[in-house]
Amino acid sequence: MPIYASTFTSGLEPLVKECFPRLLRGSQIYDIYNGLIVYRFEGKPEQLARPGIFANTYLVLARQNSPTFRSMVLQAGKAEPIYMSRVRAGQSFRVRFQRNGRLEHVDPALHAQAEQLISRRARLRVDRENPDWEFWYIIRSENIGLYCMLVNRREQTERDLPRGALRPELARCMCVYAGVGPRDTVLDPFAGHGSIPMQLFAMHRGIRVLAGDIDEAAVRKLRRALAEHVQRGAAQLERWDARHMNALPDNSIDRVITDPPWGVYDAERYPDIAAFYLDALTEIARVLRPGGTLVMLSAAKSELMRAARQVGLLPEGRLDIFVNGKKAALMRFRKPKARREQF
Questions:
Q1: Where is the Ribosomal RNA large subunit methyltransferase K/L-like methyltransferase domain (predicted)?
Q2: Among 27, 143, 173, 318, which one has the highest count of C-beta atoms within 10 angstroms of its own C-beta?
């Protein structure tokens, strides 16, 4: 059975371990590391993109403990070329070397040796700029090495995304963490560029999404992106201040999933993030149904926890992660079903 390795946002290991078997049926987890899961899967390669929670996915060709790049290249020369069925003679490729998450330049002779292993076996041509395929030698901090072939890459990198936009795979993880069901009504009060609403519809076409933002231009752009869902009545997009969502009835929302301003890295614009969160969570608690769930991403963790306590939301989980190199937390809360439930 083929072995694959997929990368995800560091800190989400508990979530990935819990949800992965049901997101990719027939998979078997082999190992899970910081931001990486190694697993067996015998299904069709196109199914590997189905979970939606990964950045990149690789076909593992060889694995080594206590590796060096030189020892890995030597091992690659002896490994069975299981990638042969996926490539066509004449296609292009490049070889990349990565240590602890960073690309690394190696001795040119070693790089050329690694390229020759592939070009001779598969009759592929080297293209270091824009190849059809990529082969990676990865050395991780856990002292393991993976020689692998990239088979699925993230849709967009940080360079491709608008400033402040969530990566699609992180937005999908937030939706999974919230436990979104196929018929839920879901709210994103700080929709911004729309990463969360887009992932919600990618997961469940039958859900209803309400989303808004204080930025009129962002709302117009999101209306265009979700025009199909707006036309069929599945999406409602509004310009609003999330602290005053007067158009939404009390107890009308099953899940709230959102990425609000953090304040920590934008103190001039949000000088009192604690008060801002208290006002926003007061509205969120009002519109959530009893038993409903809030999942929020923020770097202002103590301010968010304090505001949740003040409005009566119960903490259910927290995952500390890094977003674009900045410390943040994915926090989950629940609105009590009965008054006797307390923080």
A1: 163-310
A2: 173
